[in-house]
Write a structure and sequence with these properties.
The protein is α+β, with helices and mostly antiparallel strands. It has three domains: 137 residues, no CATH class; 60 residues; 106 residues, no CATH class. It has a six-stranded antiparallel barrel. The chain has a four-stranded antiparallel beta sheet with strand order 2-11-13-12.
């Protein structure tokens, strides 16, 4: 009997209307200043099996600079053949609170005509931030997931991208970035998407656990008064990040990709009562050219005679009634009944928007 009651309870629970799922504050936003920083550098990859840049001028200058630092000075006017080297751009993400001595992953990408970085090694390269300061030094063997081969007759085969590689733990942090984590009296949580209702719910959740500490600055930012001391501040931030919030429903939007014909409609889109008629006029032209031969001894020439057939077909119109307050599922079902394609769907949605029946923002990308 108990088992039967349990099965019945699970069945009734599955029929109960679903509510908005709660999300953590750390998934809805992030603390201001606690972020990654982009690093960039210019370097040279050597040891390539003839797949390098050859005699590119900027690579030659870079190699002269590298050899000069090692005490090897090339004579003036000498341009070495460098098919075993390639000029590259090195990029990396410096995480927040990174300390000198820690390592980070780097991405190496060719800058010139190099065909592949497979088998190469990156020479020591400084990585700089937006302020021009050096924050890390990169060096190591490049791991490439792509493959490129070519034959003497010019045929080529390329798998993935052999001109981009990665070096795991390939850069050593030389300098950290100040975040102001333990200095400012307040820290700010910036939501990933501006929404006053979501900001209000985040503020209320924080104030329930820490009364009077949170206030809203705008639709994105919630300012929080923090205690002094790194330990107490870190404990409070960890607790705030794990608070469960039910975010506000997204604004009604219809996203149209004009290049691929993709249309995305979110669940907040609603319709006022409207009737939609969809029909097509198809014009078809068939060309059937014929070759005409002259009669014997007529001194004529073979000619091509054009024969065209034009036909017009008007497909049957269908009228579908869309009820007021129709949900996403009802909108999709109604449009499927009309048998519309992606391009026709865009026209119908734009017409509904102009008629005032579509309550949503249309975004064309």
């Amino acid at each position: 009997m108990t088992r039967l009651i349990l099965i019945l309870a699970l069945f009734l629970t599955s029929l109960w209307p679903s509510v908005a799922a709660a999300e953590r504050v750390r998934d809805l936003g992030s603390f201001q200043g606690v972020r990654t920083n982009q690093l960039t550098g210019y370097g040279v990859v050597v040891g390539l099996p003839g797949t390098g840049d050859d005699n590119l001028e900027y690579l030659t200058q870079a190699m002269k600079g590298v050899t000069g630092r090692l005490g090897v000075n090339l004579p003036p006017g000498v341009s070495p053949g460098l098919k075993n080297a390639a000029a590259v751009m090195v990029t990396a993400q410096l995480p927040a609170f990174s300390k000198p001595g820690q390592t980070i992953d780097i991405t190496v990408s060719t800058l010139g005509k190099a065909k592949s970085l497979r088998g190469g090694a990156l020479i020591m390269t400084p990585l700089v931030g937006a302020d021009g300061q050096v924050y890390a030094m990169a060096q190591g063997s490049v791991a490439v997931g792509g493959l490129g081969v070519s034959a003497r007759d010019g045929s080529q085969l390329t798998v993935n991208v052999p001109t981009v590689g990665r070096i795991a733990d390939g850069a050593t942090v030389e300098r950290g970035v100040a975040t102001g984590f333990d200095q400012s009296n307040e820290l700010r949580v910036n939501l990933h998407r501006a929404d006053f209702l979501t900001a209000q719910r985040v503020r209320d959740a924080i104030n329930r656990d820490y009364p009077g500490t949170a206030r809203i600055e705008d639709g994105v930012t919630i300012s929080i008064a923090m205690p002094f001391g790194s330990n107490a501040r870190a404990n409070m931030m960890a607790a705030i990040e794990m608070l469960q919030i039910s975010p506000a429903e997204s604004a009604a939007k219809v996203i149209v990709n004009s290049r691929t014909g993709t249309v995305v409609i979110n669940s907040a889109v609603r319709l006022s009562p409207a009737a939609v008629s969809h029909g097509k006029l198809v014009v078809r032209i068939d060309e059937s050219p014929r070759i005409v031969q002259p009669a014997p001894f007529a001194n004529g020439q073979t000619a091509v005679e054009q024969a065209s057939t034009i036909s017009v077909e008007e497909r049957e119109d269908r009228v579908t009634l869309m009820k007021g307050g129709a949900s996403l599922a009802e909108i999709v079902d109604a449009l499927n009944m009309l048998g519309v394609g992606a391009s026709d769907l865009v026209v119908i949605l734009e017409s509904l928007k102009q008629a005032g029946a579509l309550r949503a923002e249309m975004v064309v990308i």
